[in-house]
Design goal:
Elements (H helix, E strand, L loop, with lengths): L15 E5 L2 E4 L4 E4 L2 H4 L8 H13 L11 H11 L6 E7 L2 H18 L7 E5 L8 H5 L4 H4 L10 E4 L4 H4 L6 H19 L4 E6 L2 E2 L6 E2 L4 H11 L3 E5 L23 E4 L1 H4 L6 E6 H9 L14 H16 L2 H20 L5 E6 L4 E5 L15 H11 L2 E2 L1 E3 L2 E2 L2 E2 L1 E5 L7 H20 L2
Parallel strand pairs: 3-15, 5-6, 5-7, 7-10, 10-11
Antiparallel strand pairs: 1-2, 2-3, 4-12, 8-9, 11-12, 13-14, 14-19, 16-19, 17-18
Helix pairs in contact: 2-12, 3-12, 8-9, 13-15, 14-15
Bound molecules: 4'-deoxy-4'-aminopyridoxal-5'-phosphate (PMP).
Amino acid sequence: MSRVLHRTLFADPMLAVRGEGIYLHTADGEKIIDGSGGAAVACLGHGNARVNAAIAEQLSKVAYVHTALFTNEAAEELADVLLGDEPGGLSHAYFCSSGSEGMEAAIKLARQYFLEIGQPQRTRYIARRQGYHGNTLGALSAGGNMMRRAPYAPILSEAFSLVSPCFAYRFQRDDETDEQYVQRLADELEAEFQRLGPQNVIAFCAEPVVGATTGCVTALPGYFKKMREICDRHGALMILDEVMCGMGRTGTLHAWEQEGITPDIQIVAKGLGGGYQPIGGILIGKRIIDAFRAGSGSFMHGHTYQAHPVACAAALAVQKVIREDNLVANVRAMGERLAAGLTERLGNHRHVGDIRGRGLFQAIELVTDRATKATFDPALKLNERIKQAAFDRGLAIYPMGGTIDGKHGDHICIAPPYIATAADIDAIVERLGDAVDDAVASL
Ligand code: PMP
């Protein structure tokens, strides 16, 4: 029995002993396709020699320095690679060890920004239902997964309120055009600003493509532009959480590029280091940096392992491979193949209500009935059954039991490494299709 606490306490998961490309090998000799890179993390797959060499080299140079005393080459070069041409006006980076830490830093940086510019009354944040921003208390307070929030509700921050996400499959009304639905959501956000007092709002927080709660939900065209306009009108910041959907995953380096907007603060993590080291970060707009420069000059926040040299060296190598090997173009091509394959194999399945996503970030949502979109009884654990059935067929995929307004929903996320070939994608589709059939048959 494992003595390491896993998501399900006292579970005994398979023992992974080696990774190679898109495959993971277990102690029992199983060879499994890593069809979701964990939780959309392993963007280069496993055992990348260039990344491993960069980590070893950094270890041999210097493993650790504290940012109160030194900067380091890997962190500086990583910031240059990410921010060289100031994408979207983002000019500086802060590196931490996870997505949740990045979210905490974004929350605090945004609050301190308004102190720097003399607006201390701004104390409120607006985030979205079905959003996920991490499991630390600040990030969870911004989160809209009601099952994850429930045990901790009494200790979450009241600085956050939640509005509806743009989730057309579930919440667009039959008699509503796309424009009308987007306008309804804009009206709701505007009303929330008015309820809180627009002068009191620090930021609106959202994932450009929703990941961990309901699986790869893209917004309708024009939605983010409208949200950006509302933030601008009220002088609030826009914080975009690209922990899961960023760093090339959706077919552009940043998911916001496809929305025609730019954030004031962006959180990145998973695809930043591809799992080779724990690393997250925030990318920060120049006007925020300028305010700090003109003001206190210091961010009242930080962690011991901030801008860790080995983590930054790993991320730097990952980012160089993505660029040198033109992998974002492969994400676009393979993403189209994956979406088309899933649609062909599962599009008419009586229990597959929706297939959605962007790039190599695709999900299926399971329903009892496609007409009513009713969800399965959570006790059936359909998403877990699909996970197990996929394992039995040599495929690892990421099950999400995210909530749809408080109720359990069964979602499966498919997020293969960016190096996936057409044959890899076809194998994933085939194995997943069979796994869904097996799991449904077992009900
Ligand atoms: N934000 C988003 C959008 C995420 O998907 C996640 C992780 N699934 C997080 C934040 C938290 O990241 P971490 O688990 O690294 O703390």
